Amino acid sequence: KGWVGNFYPKGTKPADFLREYARRLTTLEGNTTFYAVPAPKTVESWVENTPETFRFCPKIPKAISHNGKLLDYVDRALGFINVMRPLGPRLGPMFLQLPPRYSPSLLGDLEAFLFRMPRDIRLAVEVRHLDWFESPHDETLDQLLASHNMARVVIDTRPIRDLQGDEILEGTTYGSLLEARERKPDVPVVPKRTTDFVFVRFIGHPELAPNIEYIAEWVDYLVPQMQKDADVFVFCHSPNNLLAPEICREFQRRIAAKIDIPPLPWDAIKPDEPEQPSLF
Predict the structure, then answer these.
(1) Are strands 27-30 and 231-237 parallel, antiparallel or unpaired?
(2) pLDDT per position as a tens digit, 199-239
């Protein structure tokens, strides 16, 4: 709701949020599916409110990913995929976020689960147990994902961590940053490409300037991947998410300065329309 009057036009109703979002950006990280499987009519409304070029990347429900062994819930996962299939060309990569307790000791379970996934579904996997980032588990995970043409999610929380303690004050803008630090995983940033797409989750600082050096670093990595025909999905967050659209835009601007990519739909919105096309 905090986007109404800046990212969204003034007076935008919740029922119109998705349509207005799709008029500006091209991809959506479907976090709501983590908490509940949508009704078929809801999925139909997603199609109706977005162009065919739009992509939804739904998160697999936590009732599957956070409930013990994955294989015990593989039928539920397949059912969820079938619910998403009516998105048709709008269905981008799904992603499986594993909890911190899901360690490499469950590699066999993960392998068996991924083996059951349909071959026509693009899937990205996010691990949070720190042992996955150590050898030999790091290499084993990459090999497993590559063998199934799946991506490894990279989550970058450095912008909300690499600050001097004196800058963070309770009761200010930085209060939400402290909360974000507690909730978001502190894991190594390991850019890996194991398939034909790259999946990045960037957790930005609530002010734009501290994000710039990290965005520039990512652009230096992503541009060569795109030049090698990789699809790149970048999802931008911030502690209160008010700045998230502008972080997305900054990524796009910097990549577009290096290679020829389509502009964001956002760029076609004229300043004289009854809205503010930027957060600033």
Answers:
(1) unpaired
(2) 999 999 989 999 999 999 999 999 999 999 999 999 999 98
